[in-house]
Structure formats: structure tokens, C-alpha cells
Amino acid sequence: MVNNDLPTRNCREGLVHSTRNLAFWTGAWLLTTALMTFGAKLLWPGNNTLSFITIALNLAAGAAMILANIRHLRVQDELERKLFLDAAAITLGVGLVAGIAWQFYGNLPSSPVQPQISHLILLMGGTFLVSLVVAMRRLR
């Protein structure tokens, strides 16, 4: 008797492994971002050598996260890939449009806030999650 579930099971196992790998590198990037940001302020103020090392670590973790994302896209089926890419496209558009407007608003003399990159990161992360969840719910 032939086991027809084997290719499906292997695809699912590959997707689970890819998801874990992506989560690991995303976590590593977040940790190095926090270390880069708060380390220079709280742990080693004025030590440029440590700051440059954490910047290099952050860039390396970011590159690994990007590669993990590419690998993750390759193991997804067509529908999962479409949902992911649609959410990514919406996120890019929202980030670009809102980021430019937010920066312009922050440059106004009467602006009570100073735009920070963290604001844009939070907006883009939230946009991606909401876009992906909405797209997945539409399929039900």
C-alpha cells in the first residue's frame, strides 16, 4: 500500500522547521536591536567600539532574518505565499505612505512629537499581522 500522506507530511514538517528558523532569526534581530539601542545608552555610554560591534551583530542577524524569510517563502504552498506576499505589499505601502507623512508632521515647528523609527516599525509590524489575519479569515 502506498502512503500518499508522505509528501504532504514532509511539506508540513519543512514549513514548521522554516517557521521556527524564521522565528529564531527574528528574535535574534530583535534582541540585537534592543542591545544596540539600550546598550549604548545604559551599559556602555561613550564606548564606540562596543557600539560598532553591536551594529555589526544587528546587521548580521538582520541579514540572517532576511535569508530565513526567503527560505520560508520557498517552502510555502501557493496560497500561503500569496497571502504572505499580499500582506507584505500592504505593509510596504502603509509604511512608505505613513512614514513620509509622519516624518513631515514631525518636522513642523508646532509638532509636539519627534518621529522615531520605532514608531514606523510598530506600525509596519501591526499592519503585517492584521493584513495576514484578515486575509486568512477571508478564506474560511
Automatic annotation (TrEMBL):
Origin superkingdom: Bacteria
Stretches that traverse the bilayer: 22-44, 50-71, 83-105, 117-136
Protein name stated in the entry: Uncharacterized protein
Keywords, sorted A to Z: Membrane, Transmembrane, Transmembrane helix
